[in-house]
Design goal:
By secondary structure, the protein is α/β, with parallel strands linked by helices. The chain is built from two helices and eight strands. 15% of the residues lie in helices and 38% in strands. The chain is globular and about 50 Å long.
Length: 139
């Protein structure tokens, strides 16, 4: 068995690309608009790791995605949890679970998909202002 990708349904292509590409730092590998099926597929991956892909699926006809159509979370290892969270905040992303422990944080995409960020290797030294930041909303 070989891992291929994780598919996430999105409602707004521009907002999702701002989150996944611009703020989170994933690279767009391909984009395919399928007029006959009325959907768009966008494949992204972390730089240097194209084997772990995220497929963003945008159905052109509005649809509510609830309960049975979502899942737990995406997870990415990052080189510096504090710098990553700061970059996300600079892009207007709320840090729902700040990296108070120097190791783990959670954010959400524009469609409410939870994204876990884990410090690669050992946890960084606990640092302010992160150590005293409270959780914000659900993560």
């Amino acid at each position: 068995m070989h891992y291929l990708h994780t598919m996430v349904r999105i409602t707004d292509v521009d907002a999702s690309l701002h989150f996944y590409r611009d703020a989170l730092g994933l690279q767009v590998l391909s984009r395919r608009d399928v007029p006959q099926g009325r959907f768009t597929l966008i494949f992204l991956a972390a730089p240097g790791n194209e084997t772990a892909q995220v497929e963003l699926t945008h159905n052109w006809d509005p649809e509510a995605y609830t309960g049975g159509r979502n899942f737990g979370h995406l997870a990415y290892a990052v080189d510096d949890i504090y710098a990553t969270c700061q970059r996300l905040m600079d892009h207007g992303v709320t840090i729902n679970r700040p990296p108070r422990d120097g190791r783990m944080a959670f954010v959400r995409s524009p469609d409410g998909i939870s994204v876990e960020l884990l410090q690669h290797g050992a946890a960084l030294a606990v640092a302010e202002p992160w150590a005293s930041m409270p959780n914000v909303g659900a993560w």
